[in-house]
Known about the structure:
Largest sheet of chain A: 8 strands, mixed
Strand content of chain A: 15-25%
Oligomer: homotetramer
Radius of gyration of chain A: 20 Å
CATH class of chain A: Alpha Beta
Amino acid sequence: MEEIVTQFIEKPKLEKPVFVEGLPGVGNVGKLAAEHLIDEIDAVKFADIYSKHFPPQIFVNEDGTIKLVNNELFYKKAEKGGQSDLILLVGDYQGLTPEGQYELADVMLGIAKEFGTSRIYTLGGYAVGKLTEKPKVYGAATSVELVEEMKKIGATFSKTDPSGGIVGASGLLLGLGKMRGIDAICLMGETSGYFVDPKSAEAVLKVLTKALNIEIDFAELEAKAKQIDQITSKIRELEENIPRPKKDDLGYIG
Amino acid sequence: MEEIVTQFIEKPKLEKPVFVEGLPGVGNVGKLAAEHLIDEIDAVKFADIYSKHFPPQIFVNEDGTIKLVNNELFYKKAEKGGQSDLILLVGDYQGLTPEGQYELADVMLGIAKEFGTSRIYTLGGYAVGKLTEKPKVYGAATSVELVEEMKKIGATFSKTDPSGGIVGASGLLLGLGKMRGIDAICLMGETSGYFVDPKSAEAVLKVLTKALNIEIDFAELEAKAKQIDQITSKIRELEENIPRPKKDDLGYIG
Amino acid sequence: MEEIVTQFIEKPKLEKPVFVEGLPGVGNVGKLAAEHLIDEIDAVKFADIYSKHFPPQIFVNEDGTIKLVNNELFYKKAEKGGQSDLILLVGDYQGLTPEGQYELADVMLGIAKEFGTSRIYTLGGYAVGKLTEKPKVYGAATSVELVEEMKKIGATFSKTDPSGGIVGASGLLLGLGKMRGIDAICLMGETSGYFVDPKSAEAVLKVLTKALNIEIDFAELEAKAKQIDQITSKIRELEENIPRPKKDDLGYIG
Amino acid sequence: MEEIVTQFIEKPKLEKPVFVEGLPGVGNVGKLAAEHLIDEIDAVKFADIYSKHFPPQIFVNEDGTIKLVNNELFYKKAEKGGQSDLILLVGDYQGLTPEGQYELADVMLGIAKEFGTSRIYTLGGYAVGKLTEKPKVYGAATSVELVEEMKKIGATFSKTDPSGGIVGASGLLLGLGKMRGIDAICLMGETSGYFVDPKSAEAVLKVLTKALNIEIDFAELEAKAKQIDQITSKIRELEENIPRPKKDDLGYIG
Lengths: 254, 254, 254, 254
């Protein structure tokens, strides 16, 4: 069995498509954003990517049939002037090992090249360790020109953030993309790091759709965000009501 | 040394055999079930599978001779109309790494294809975290038709279970089998996840033997189930007799 | 760089040599035994084995020069009738991964075959979790004939021990050796599992030298055993003098 | 994608260059030393080394552009008699796995050979578990002659240190270098092991620059050392002010 198996359902004819990656990661921000975009623009699946670098696992669908864990590629043709054809990458997992990550990113870039991709956007979350009302969207890019372009549409660039760099597919597609001469931008929504974060996904999508000149509805994401908000509020309430030991009671610790 | 070495003792001539997998896993349900079936139908070993993906380990037999850890294949010719020839896969271990799991499943499917396998059953346990009197047998399959067929003979299909999907050989043989166009079904016995579970293995075997139109005796499995029951009862008794701290004694915790 | 690099210093002409393995493991029993044997019979080093499966590490010699971690092969020609030529394998480490273990054992067997090896002895420790005055030497072998032969010279064969099988090079050389048609025996000295155990190594060597018809001195090993005995006695004394909390003091735990 | 990709910016013509390695490690001593040397002698970058053996990670520069994690090679031509041309190796990471370490060291040695390297210095830290005012510089080398040469310029050679050998690139370049017939020396600065240690890096550089007949300024390193000193002093102060439990309070422990 090959390391990575790509099965094409169709090979769409695309004009210099923009490639958007949203795989699972911090707060599942990238995955939530890319899946929402796919739903809203009715993108069409055209390929499955299976790999030994994913867990040896299947999921069971609601009807009892099964699905081997994978990554999936969708496309959408531009609908009006000022838009680009799109390829969208989503999936159940990222590669489990560093080597797997490099090999998968290399295959993704090969596919991007094959379809004549002009630019890559990778979507992710940036864990800041606390809840934020209005998540910023941090950016990083393969050239200064792209940085300037992103600043204009609302991305934040900071001398210090993201401090630990960008790990995984969202980072590698930029790093290896640059080596192969493909323009690439990473958009990272601020997120606590403790919950899946649809609000952060919405913030990322707002920057991305502006860049792509697409208008979409955010109602679904906002509904999910409300659900999460309710859960987190309850947890905070519970925490506040837990009686803590008084200092006296713990005297024996010193 | 090759990654996986298959040594055939003989190459039996089989007519569209059904392939049954029962490797170690949750509650050892699949292994117990497949080994019991092999014993009851007097299946014959025809191949050993050794691999770098298994631990570097030998077992010592009662007579002081040794056995390198492996997987083993057995076969049984159909004895009457309405039955199928069978191939049965059992073993000491599953592959240790995700890559090893994929490579081993790929080899198993190659062997299944070589013998003209018409259908695969994989057997396993589904951990529910508590003891159950009458373990259900959950199913998953590569097509809706197979799901319907399994429902008729007593398998349970649920929109939510197994919630985490199916991990390891029992999952991969379905996932990769589907890619290769082989019909495959996974039968999972409910089990606590804390003990080896012959009772769950019996439940799985009852569904499987109905599907295979085979009648076997369950006395051995039931005896093992009784032994386990005695051990778990004792543990529960012991737990109940452990004096627990009264609330007052723990006042200092708050 | 190749996975495993064997550098021969010389290629000795040996007559059906017996191959003895003593790599690091439980209680370092095998390593202590093989190194003691090499010293006592003045065996000559003839090859170095380096590998990516060992740690990326060098040792610094007393004179400030360095040594890349490795495995080493020694030989000794028979000195009188009834003895065999010997190849002895010792080293700093075993392979770090299961795959590395299999590949290294495969290379060792290739070398054994190249020199016409007639039989392999692997030496190791068997952890029993407590100190023993007179460590038994457990055996395992590739055939019933070898088991009988070993029983006659003092090896113990038990229906239940070693219960977990034999892990690492000492096991694999038997398991893979059997597949290649080489007779092989594992001798395991009982050991606590907590300390390096020269006493257990001596017990193993007494069985091995009887099998090889060699007489050697054990003074060095016995001196080392005394040092270890002194350390373990001191630890036991210390433990006995630690005042333990009285039940009353711990009343608050319940 | 290849395991290791070396991209040359230029191929400088060098005369038997001395190769200096300073990758991240204990106290970051080697990295700090090599980077300081590069800055002080205005060495020129001539190659980037990317690898699947590094983490799948990019760093974000202050201007928002990105950099795939890598190792980098610099060179500096000799400026006066008695000096050598230099190649300097620095980087973000060492290989993540033992195999990766071996493969990377092998590639580094290939490059060293390609440029006619006459000698390798590897720089690192030796963790002693406590702060030291005047860190010693321990040495290790591929020959007794090199040991003597290093002793003359201030390196310490001890029969017992470094007791655990030398792990990683600093060790492997000596171990594999010796196999390929390249003279190599490791210089290790004593360091606590708890902090990055510019003072230890300075000590290492003083020995190295004497060996290379180069004079450099240490002001930058000394400034960094002062910062670290201030932090460690504060921590010690804090620790001294933490009230510890009195013996009485802990009476219940025994």
